[in-house]
């Protein structure tokens, strides 16, 4: 991994799990690292953990609640003032397996937090990414995207909702967004690229996970499992997408092992639905309308 001194990285959801592991490594390699988190107390605890390991790390906090577009706008405004140039933006934070509910702005929770909030945040801070010599935007997907389907006639997901379906739809949206952003950056000859990555079977307690899922995570951490690995290993695909000199826009990284669940990070392929350009363009238009964010491209 190259030295990152002089570069600025922003990681959403960086206080725990794969987000923390990614931020820890970026900071250790010299990047000015911003932990964009909902809970300031937990974010400070994460910062302290990084500094305990890397006392010279240049690490900062940004309050960002993806459940609220007001918070997203405020965080973006603060970030642009403090960091006019962003070399790496990792859209990592997310919720999983929630019962049907709505964000502060009335969106179904998985779709609102995992996709729409990151769509808005990325668009708002894009000028800083474009100000970098070779900015990168890495959006974290999941194997769960294979279970996702976007019904444009039922965006609130009021018919046939299941937590896994809600999560799968949001992860499909993450990949559609990442690929469409890549196409738009390329068409504009912009000095930035968009990539995606997924952690495989990383044993983390993702935001919003229910009790049974937390129990499953504890079991996976204690019992050898051929399709589960550590949060550190789960962070490697997003780190490779963020810093590998050979990476190019539009690529998708994940573990190389069984079912792309474990192992070192390599280029992997998402399903055909995630690569549908018509669905991606339609989702982009919808996301613009729902968030009010227009990209400066």
TrEMBL record:
The residue ranges crossing the membrane are none
Tell me which Gene3D superfamilies the record gives: NAD(P)-binding Rossmann-like Domain (3.40.50.720)
Classify the source by domain of life. Bacteria
Q: Does the keyword Oxidoreductase apply?
A: yes
InterPro entries given for it? NAD(P)-bd_dom_sf (IPR036291), SDR_fam (IPR002347)
> What keywords would UniProt list here?
Oxidoreductase
> Which Pfam families does the entry link to?
adh_short
* Cross-referenced SUPFAM superfamilies: NAD(P)-binding Rossmann-fold domains
Q: Which family does it belong to?
A: Belongs to the short-chain dehydrogenases/reductases (SDR) family.
NCBIfam families from the xrefs?
A: PRK06197.1
Protein's name in the database: Oxidoreductase
């Amino acid at each position: 991994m190259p030295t990152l001194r002089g570069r600025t990285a922003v990681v959403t959801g960086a206080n725990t799990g794969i987000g923390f592991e990614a931020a820890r490594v970026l900071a250790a390699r010299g990047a000015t690292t911003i932990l964009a988190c909902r809970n300031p107390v937990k974010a400070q605890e994460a910062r302290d953990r990084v500094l305990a390991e890397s006392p010279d790390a240049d690490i900062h906090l940004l309050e960002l609640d993806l459940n609220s577009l007001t918070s997203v706008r405020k965080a973006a405004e603060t970030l642009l003032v403090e960091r006019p140039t962003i070399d790496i933006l990792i859209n990592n934070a997310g919720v999983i397996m929630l019962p049907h509910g709505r964000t502060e702005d009335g969106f179904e929770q998985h779709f609102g937090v995992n996709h729409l909030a990151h769509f808005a945040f990325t668009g708002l801070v894009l000028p800083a990414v474009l100000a970098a010599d070779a900015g990168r935007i890495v959006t974290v997907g999941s194997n769960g995207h294979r279970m996702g389907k976007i019904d444009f006639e039922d965006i609130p997901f009021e018919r046939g909702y299941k937590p896994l379906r809600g999560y799968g739809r949001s992860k499909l949206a993450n990949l559609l967004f990442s690929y469409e952003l890549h196409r738009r950056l390329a068409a504009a000859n912009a000095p930035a690229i968009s990539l995606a990555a997924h952690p495989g079977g990383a044993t983390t307690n993702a935001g919003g996970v229910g009790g049974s899922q937390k129990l499953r995570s504890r079991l996976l951490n204690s019992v050898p499992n051929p399709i589960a690995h550590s949060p550190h290993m789960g962070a490697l695909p997003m780190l490779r997408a963020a810093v590998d000199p050979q990476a190019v826009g539009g690529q998708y990284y994940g573990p190389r092992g069984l079912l792309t669940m474990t192992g070192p990070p390599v280029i992997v392929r998402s399903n055909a639905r995630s690569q549908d350009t018509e669905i991606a363009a339609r989702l982009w238009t919808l996301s613009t309308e729902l968030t009010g964010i227009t990209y400066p491209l």
